[in-house]
Fold this sequence. Notes:
- By secondary structure, this protein is an alpha+beta fold.
- The N and C termini lie far apart (28 Å).
- Strands 1-2 form a two-stranded antiparallel sheet.
- Strand 1 (33-37) and strand 2 (43-48) form a beta hairpin.
- It has 2 helices and 2 strands.
- Helix content is 32%, strand content 15%.
Amino acid sequence: xxxxxLARSSFFADDTxxxxxxxxxxxxxxxxxxxxxxxxxxxxxxxxxxxPHAVDQLIADLRALGVxxxxx
Length: 72
């Protein structure tokens, strides 16, 4: 629930066409966009999750922030 609230209030990931209430977890806009938010809640990047080069950039940015990335 916290993630849905944060996404709606800070990153505008809501869509009134898919639900009528903030309590309705289906009222959430799902897109190909990936957002990198640091531990202080700052937006550090936006990426198109369907583009391999954008995902590679996300991984590089995570590593630049000191996040250990393990790929399977």
